[in-house]
Amino acid sequence: MFRGVVFDFDGVIVDSHPVHKRAWKKFLESIGKTVSESQLQFVLDGRKREDILRHFLGELDPEQVVEYGLRKEELFRDEAADVQTVEGFSDFLEDLQDAKVALGIASSASRSRLTFLLDRLELRRHFPVVVTADEVDQGKPNPAVFLKAARKLGICPSELLAFEDAVSGVKAARSSGMMCIGIAQADRASTLLAAGAISVVPNFCDLSYAKLRHFSSNGTVFRPLGTLI
After folding, report:
1. Predicted model pTM
2. Are residues 128 and 208 in the same domain?
3. Count of CB atoms within 10 A of residue 188's CB?
4. CATH code of 191's domain
5. 163: left (phi over 0), alpha (psi -120 to 50) or beta
6. Over its length of 229 residues, how does the chain's per-residue pLDDT go in tens digits?
7. Which of the listed residues 10, 37, 90, 152 has the most CB atoms within 10 Å of its CB?
8. Do 64 and 110 share a domain, yes or no?
9. CA distances (Å), 193 to each of 6, 103, 184, 198, in order?
């Protein structure tokens, strides 16, 4: 039986991927780096900001990492006015809270950006445990961020259920010992299943505490209203 849920943030709690891509594209172009749409997909794989910078720009000194990171964050905030929660998330969150489920966030985002969006969407009070990329040495797919969230919650990872939308995130959650459900459309479901997700849903609309409890107690793949892949 699961006792808590740990959410990734971007692409899971908030539908922020389009904004991220625009912000990264603008930043890279501002320093003379042109990237294709397919190359830009890397920014959606749940990596730490410094890992993304080095992926596109090679080795950077610590001062450059900080400077470039701040510039990218400014561009994100300029674009973020329309960012909203993923469909069905608010009702699902309320259902979990009514059931007294422990809640946490384990994200590759920076603390400042994540807090900015939590505050704007009035979500911060719902999550007593928030672990960000700033607090771990190694980003996803290393499990450090999930393990730290479990420690802060005081719950064994095997009793936690994670929600992730990226391959690196699914691998990190599974490596930590958590079960993991993927959040993705049908065209990406197979990649998350291959990474270790036990199932994949497009959003939270058909999920509930009762369904998660039934699933975790039986250990079988559940299919709420036919949407779980």
Report:
1. 0.84
2. yes
3. 18
4. 3.40.50.1000
5. beta
6. 789 999 999 999 999 988 888 888 999 999 999 889 889 888 877 788 888 999 999 999 999 999 998 898 888 888 888 899 999 999 999 999 999 999 999 999 889 889 999 999 999 999 999 999 889 999 999 999 999 999 999 999 999 999 999 999 999 999 999 999 999 999 999 999 999 999 999 999 999 999 888 776 665 444 433 344 4
7. 10
8. no
9. 18, 24, 10, 6
Beta bridge mates, 163: 7, 181
With b for 16 or more beta-carbon neighbours within 10 A and e for fewer, the 75-101 pattern comes to bbbebbeebebbebbbebbebbeeeeb
Pair 171, 77 in one domain: no
Domain boundary residue among 81, 103, 133? 81
- How many distinct structural domains can be found in the chain? 2
159 belongs to a structural domain: yes
Q: What is the DSSP letter of 105?
A: E
CA torsion, ordered 162, 166, 167, 169, to nearest 10 deg: -40
Phi, psi at 9, each rounded to 5°: -110, -70
Q: Are residues 67 and 88 in the same domain?
A: no
Strands, E assignment, the chain = 4-7, 102-106, 129-131, 160-164, 179-183, 199-201
Q: What is the largest CA-CA distance in the chain?
A: 54
CA angle (143 as vertex; 129, 208 as ends), nearest 5? 55
Residue 77: give the domain boundaries: 17-81
